[in-house]
Every structure is written in structure tokens, then in C-alpha cells.
């Protein structure tokens, strides 16, 4: 029998948490897996930090590009050296490769220096350890509590490193008065759970609307739903609501737009 939980997020956390988390959802990866070349954004003005679960043994990079690296146990710090020409300071914008040896794994990153604040990149130990960590996080919990815990973590931005995050950027036109923007998918490997986060906004000319979680139980958005949650049921013009859909996760039950984006379907 299929059943659903409707989660009232307003009773769990406060709105300032939502505003703080929204500023960090920029689409750039902050977790890197071993043996997979990953493009990451780094600050070209401030010191960046790499964090690993074990001691970092080495960071191999092109020293001729003027990059300073310091290793301190489980952390490594990366600084792009600025050039001074007269009164002008020139900051690096050249992509640079970093090969980080941590524990028994090698992590390869292509760092894209940009004028942004300091960045922290976490080096994940891979799928097997992620699954073990996920299982330990939810050990002994009934399904209802797993769902509530998962949605709260994502809503507040307190997402464990062991979760797999896939960024999306597709706008969906499924409703007469609403736009849906697919933001990201968070997968809890080992638990068979996933959450898709959407941003909901009114189309031009639409008046304020009260949203209902059940309106989003559509096959275009989910095929195996366990819960639907909205952070703001009353949507005013110019505002954006966050929608969370929790479901049983398998590649075969992904919505068509996800399969097409990931290359799993037509």
C-alpha cells in the first residue's frame, strides 16, 4: 500500500535558516570522490581549504603557476599568488590541476580560480564508506523518523558528507500558474532514499496562490513518493518556495526529465 507523509517544515526550523542556506546553493561541487576528475570553484584572493577523513600525504600541482600549498594533517590549504604590476594587482584565473593523495586514495581536481570567498572542498572516501556512514546515521530509526530527519537536514543545509548530491538546472512547465525549477537531488546510498528539491515561483501575471503538497504528486516529478514538503504554502508574486519530494530511489523509477538529463532514457 502506498502512503505519504506531509511534513510541516515551519514547525521544525525557522525561516532565517532558509535564507542562509539559499546563498550557498550555487551549483558548484564541494565534495570530491577519488579517481574522478572534478571541476571545483576556488577563491583566487583567499586561502582555500581541502578536508580529508585521513591525513593528506601530498598535493601535486603545477608550481610554476604560482600556487602555494600547505599540508597540516587532514587539511591542505591552497593559495593562488597574485601578481602586482605597478599599482594593479592581478589575480589568477587560469585553471589548475591538483592531485591529492589522502589515505589510499588519489583525488583529482581542476581548480577554477574566481573572485569568490574562501572555499572548503571535502574529499569523500567513496561509495563503500558512504554507505557505511549512511547506515550508521539511520540505524534503528523507523521510516517516518528517517524521512523527517532527511528533510530537515536538507532544509537547514546540514547535509552529511556521505550523502550524494546531484545538481540540476532544469525549468519545468507543468502548471498553468507555476514554474518549477529542479534544483538538486540528494541520494542516501544504502538506505534507498532520495530527495529532489524544486524551487516554485509564480508565472508572470499570476496572483498569490496557496500551494498544497498533493498538487505535486505527479508522475513528471516522482514515481515512488514517500513524502512531500513545502517550506511556504502561501506563494506571493516575486517569492520562491522550496519543494521537497522524498522517494524510494532506483534509476528505473526516475522521472523522464531526470533520465533524459542523466542519459538513462530518451
Poorly predicted regions are 1-25
Biggest sheet overview: 6 strands, mixed
> What helical percentage do the residues reach?
10-25%
- Give the overall shape, derived from the CA principal axes: globular
Compile the SSE list and pairings.
Elements: E1 5-8, H1 15-22, E2 31-32, E3 38-43, E4 48-52, E5 56-61, E6 67-72, E7 75-80, E8 83-85, E9 88-90, E10 96-102, E11 105-114, E12 120-123, H2 127-137, H3 143-156, E13 164-172, E14 178-188, E15 193-202, E16 209-210, E17 225-230, E18 234-235, E19 240-248, H4 256-262
Parallel strand pairs: 1-17, 2-12, 3-11, 4-12
Antiparallel strand pairs: 4-7, 5-10, 6-7, 8-9, 10-11, 13-14, 14-15, 15-19, 16-18, 17-19
Describe it.
This protein starts with a strand and ends with a helix. The chain folds into 2 domains: 5-27 and 127-262, no CATH class; 34-123, Immunoglobulin-like (Sandwich), CATH 2.60.40. It is built from 4 helices and 19 strands. A hairpin with a 2-residue loop joins strand 8 and strand 9. The chain has helices spanning 15-22, 127-137, 143-156, 256-262; strands at residues 5-8, 31-32, 38-43, 48-52, 56-61, 67-72, 75-80, 83-85, 88-90, 96-102, 105-114, 120-123, 164-172, 178-188, 193-202, 209-210, 225-230, 234-235, 240-248.
